[in-house]
Amino acid sequence: MLYSRGIPIKTDEDIDGMRKSCAIVADIRDELAKLVAPGMTTGEIDHMAGEMIQQRGCKSPFLGYRNFPGNICISVNDEVVHGIGGSRKLAYGDLLKLDLGVIHDGWIGDTAITVPIGLVSRECERLMAATKQSLMDGIKQARAGNRLGDISAAIEACILAERFGIVREFVGHGVGRKLHEEPQIPNYGTAGTGPKLKAGMTLAIEPMVNMGQQEVRYLDDGWTVVTADGKPSSHFEHTILVTEGEPEILTCGKMATSK
Question: Could you tell me the domains of the chain?
Answer without folding.
Answer: 2-249 (3.90.230.10)
